[in-house]
Amino acid sequence: MPEQAHQQQPQLIQTGDGSHSLYNPALDETYHSHHGALQESQYVFIRMGLDAWRAKQPHAESLSVLEIGFGTGLNALLALHWALQHKVKVHFTTLEPYPVSLETAKQLNYPQLTEGEKDFLRLHEAPWEEDVLLYDYFILHKKKQKLEEAALAEAAFDVVFFDAFAPNKQPELWEKALLEKTIRFMAPAALLTTYCAKGQLKRDLRDAGLQVETLPGAPGKKEMVRGSKA
Ligand SMILES: C[S@@+](CC[C@H](N)C(=O)[O-])C[C@H]1O[C@@H](n2cnc3c(N)ncnc32)[C@H](O)[C@@H]1O
Questions:
Q1: Atom 10, ligand 1: which residue's CA is nearest?
Q2: Ligand 1 pocket, residue 99 CB under 6 Å
Q3: Is 71 in the pocket of ligand 1 (CB under 6 A)?
Q4: Is 195 in the pocket of ligand 1 (CB under 6 A)?
Q5: How far apart are CA 83 and CA 74, in angstroms?
Q6: What is the pLDDT of residue 2?
Q7: Which parts of the chain register pLDDT below 50?
Q8: Cβ contacts of residue 210 below 8 Å, gap of 6+?
């Protein structure tokens, strides 16, 4: 993706469930489904990601999440609330080479919709490149880095939120070699969840050794994909 696609701050938009998202005009791409940002994040990443992992490991007291694309911070906010609700300690590492400005983040209505007033700004204001203890149950580590350049610990993450821009807008993020790299970061029983359900993605994840499930998509979308190491 050309660097100039990120020179402008993205624009605020409203999605079908009343929650905001952002629109990048240079890419002609939104950060979430236009059918509903909040319901998509809640379904694809929390329900099909964190809840599914917990169903497999009901006694686990902690887990590590890797997110590709911090973006608006919506997934991080929902994961934080999930950690507090379930009393599971979440270590949340997120990659974002093009952070949105604090001014843009402050316009998003996620705090009002999720009773997350104080938490949302703390996610955005947290320093980069270090572990930040936001709660006993939630440690945030934001890395201002591209996935292509990230050198993370291998076999370290239990759940991967693969939330890059769509393959037709940012094909380099969905290249097989980069998927294989991401899979190396996954722990033995880890899950990878994404809103995308392209046939090529499923074939590449299978070739890279994951078991692949095609699941019903978030409201307004037909399907989504989850890959599993076990
Ligand atoms: C679909 S949006 C993510 C939405 C985000 N998870 C949220 O909850 O708002 C994709 C994100 O990936 C980021 N991104 C772009 N290039 C990237 C790269 N090479 N590596 C990692 N993230 C990248 C974008 O800046 C954008 O924030």
A1: 164
A2: no
A3: yes
A4: no
A5: 14
A6: 65
A7: none
A8: 183, 192, 227, 228, 229
- Give the C-alpha separation, 73 to 60, whole Å: 25
Mutate to test the pocket of ligand 1, among 163, 178, 181 (most ligand atoms within 8 A of CB): 163
Interior/surface letters 143-182, b for 16+ CB within 10 angstroms, e for the rest: bebbbeebebeeeebbbbbbbbbeeeeeeebbeeebbebb
Cα–Cα distance between 157 and 31 in angstroms, integer?
A: 23
Reference 5, options 218, 213, 170; nearest CA is 170
Give the closest residue (by CA) to ligand 1 atom 19.
146
3-228 CATH: 3.40.50.150
The pLDDT of residue 1: 59
The CA distance from 139 to 101, in Å, is 22
The DSSP secondary-structure symbol of 194 reads E
Q: Quote the tokens at residue 162.
A: 């693969």
* 15/216 Cα distance (integer angstroms): 20
Q: Which one, of 225, 148, 143, 145, lies nearest residue 182 by Cα? A: 148
Task: Kindly state the tokens that stand for 49.
Answer: 């990601």
What are the tens digits of pLDDT across the range 79-102? 999 999 999 999 999 999 999 999
Distance in Å, CA 59 to ligand 1 centroid: 32
Residue nearest to atom 20 of ligand 1 (CA): 146
Rounded Cα–Cα distance for residues 96 and 73 (Å): 10
| pTM higher than the cut 0.90 | yes
pLDDT at 122: 97
Domain boundaries, the chain: 3-228
